[in-house]
């Protein structure tokens, strides 16, 4: 979980520059050591299209950011990334999003988000932003490693991916009894028996939450002791519905169209057995933020979540904003992601109104580093 920003002035590292304005220490700006820019060397940006807003990634956050910037007449361009629609496309019934009392399928929800954003002028394209150059505006983006685009502002909404064990049947049954979100799917298992894999705070929180619905919750951990904090462990140990299964790893998920059990192995004795009463299988072994292309450009925590200022979506690069699960390791809900997408759009619109558009550099001009920024809480 990223360390929260203090409610006071925060100063990020000052950009190091040579006297002639060139970057010091290679490609260093705002204290970040940037990735190699070799991918840009043979790309001609002289005819690259210029966009006021480029939204990177589609999920509840990205589509909402696109909707709001479109309604502000900013004509956003959104790139859908390698998994258009994000994690919700692997979810069957979504019953906890306000305004849909009967629930609806995750893919259908994302289709509706897209239709609404496009109705107001969003241009959506298939493609993945693979490289960025945030040294100065307009920012340079490479789509699929080769197509150039200029962006006056960029909204990062690339989300995060749940970590799975990598079992073939586990992947096949995602959304059919296999889940990485107890808050999203726990209510589907009322009166049933479920299993949770993990040993950290998330696993304890998820398993405790599931006891509101499930009759029994197994917590499977590959070691003899948990990584979770003492208070989280104690809550789980005191819950009569939770049973811990130690030194155990899952080697298969059983069932054709739904989970009908799991096969496990004791990693000390080598004994295998089938837990045939399990109908819900939950992974609580963490998430990986999809922020690789931005590493070294914007401030991140130690696990790769983008850090933003206070309650805003401002990153430490002026004109770059982040929203959704790419910067939220705590809530990870569709409704909270959509909320931050709205915030990112409003932040970007106000920032553009204040700073205006920047001209593309001449072909023979050197790009200068963005100025160091001092972030203040915008609450």
Describe this structure in words.
With 379 residues, this protein is an alpha/beta fold. The protein is 20% helix and 25% strand. It has seven helices and 23 strands. Strands 4, 5, 8, 9, 10, 11 and 22 form a seven-stranded mixed β-sheet that branches. A five-stranded parallel β-sheet has the order 13-20-14-15-16, with helices on one face. Helix 1 runs parallel beside helix 2 (106-119) and helix 1 (60-71) runs parallel beside helix 7 (334-355). The longest helix has 22 residues, at 334-355. The two termini are 21 Å apart. Mean pLDDT is 86; it is low at 1-26.
Indicate the topology.
Elements: E1 10-11, E2 28-29, E3 32-33, E4 49-56, H1 60-71, E5 77-79, E6 93-94, E7 104-105, H2 106-119, E8 123-125, E9 129-133, E10 139-143, E11 147-156, E12 160-162, H3 168-172, E13 178-179, H4 182-185, E14 193-197, H5 201-210, E15 216-220, H6 230-237, E16 242-245, E17 248-254, E18 261-266, E19 272-275, E20 278-283, E21 287-289, E22 320-322, H7 334-355, E23 374-375
Parallel strand pairs: 4-5, 4-11, 5-8, 11-22, 13-20, 14-15, 14-20, 15-16
Antiparallel strand pairs: 1-23, 2-3, 6-7, 9-10, 10-11, 12-21, 17-18, 18-19
Helix pairs in contact: 1-2, 1-7, 5-6
